[in-house]
Amino acid sequence: MASRGRLSWTASLIRYWYARLPRKLAPLVPRVARAVGDGAWAVVWVRMAAWAPVLVFILALFVPRTWPGTLDVYTESPFFLALAATLSILSGTLGVALLAGNGLREALSHDVASGLNAVIHEGGSRLIVWLLLAVLVVVLPQLSHLVTEAGVVRMRFLRNRDLRAIVRSLLLAVIYPCFVMVWCQAMTVLVRPVFTWTGGSPSFGAIREMQIWWVWLVSAAAAAAVLRGVLEGMVAPRIRCAPEVEALRRERSTFSQMPDAARRRAPEALRILLAVIGMTLLLAGTFERGTDALLAAATIGLLAMLNRGLCGWLTGRWATRVRKVPGALRIATALGFGYVLAVQTLELTWVTDSVQSVMIGTLLTLTLFFLLFPATRSLEPASQESL
């Protein structure tokens, strides 16, 4: 009886992590919902898939706030960054569990009685770095998988399953570390609110550690990407599926065939507003004054409305033509031209001790991305539910 109870708990957890929770999150935060369900490929290892998210959440929640080497912010801890980058590419479920535990611990660590002003500044700055962590563990892995799958789909000549798995692993091991490297470089500026919003100055350690350890972080990300590709494409398909896996497969299949009504419950205006708030907060480290925040929010809001199909030309001929270009090439083009525009902007608008030019360059790069990836919802893989 005890054994049946344990199996019952395991089966319930599997269905919750990889089917029920994504369904609940999908209406408002579809990207997070997809990340939560990303770990379903590992459900052939039943107990590990069921209990690993719980263990990671507990690790992030109860490990002392000062991770090894950390005094003010997690960017001072190469160990934490490597753990986040590795877990999130191995399984989006584990990445979200780490993010949730870290966010809850940060929320519980602030003293509300210390005054509203202190809570706003301290809490706001911590919210920003938490969102930056969400970019690392949620956005970058999904973007890497999307670009990788687009590249593999074009290689129709690879009919052997194992060969396709190897190619997918190698592509992922190139694409994901590149995104992680860009994130590391951007964090040297974007992490500023942790210090400036509380009246301090950026610590040397918050920037120094990423400048020194980014090579090892990128290497860890590449190794984890290869491991994910091999396990998912070559090892997991050869393991006999347990009854829990088959039950989950049926439940996810039913969910994938449901109409999109649940996803449309959240008003479009609310989703755009949340996107504008989130992206504006992410860029807060590049603001020098309040008008910078207003300019960034207005630009991001306009781009978000255009990208949601509220402007016909972006969903018409332009969108049709640009989608014919491989996604990897479009990303490389956006990053390349964005880099050139950012450098030119820095040269033309550079002011000593000011990062406003970084904000302008970033907004120009975002504009390029929105132009090259119109109506991105149609670019998502047709099925996110396969095991």
Short description:
With 387 residues, the chain is mostly helical.
Helix percentage: over 70%
Low-confidence regions:
1-5, 257-263, 376-387
Q: Would you count the extended β strands for me?
A: 0
Number of helices: 15
- Described by its quaternary structure, the protein is single chain
Strand content: under 5%
| Average pLDDT rating | 75
Summarize the structure in words.
With 387 residues, the chain is mainly alpha-helical. It is 72% helix and 0% strand. It has helices at residues 2-25, 30-37, 46-62, 78-90, 92-108, 116-153, 161-190, 193-196, 204-235, 243-256, 268-282, 290-310, 317-322, 327-349, 356-372. α4 (78-90) packs across α6 and α7 (161-190) runs antiparallel to α9. The longest helix is centred in the middle third of the chain and has 38 residues, at 116-153. It starts with a helix and ends in a 15-residue tail after the last helix. Residues 1-5, 257-263 and 376-387 have low confidence and may be disordered.
Helix-strand layout with pairing:
Layout: H1 2-25, H2 30-37, H3 46-62, H4 78-90, H5 92-108, H6 116-153, H7 161-190, H8 193-196, H9 204-235, H10 243-256, H11 268-282, H12 290-310, H13 317-322, H14 327-349, H15 356-372
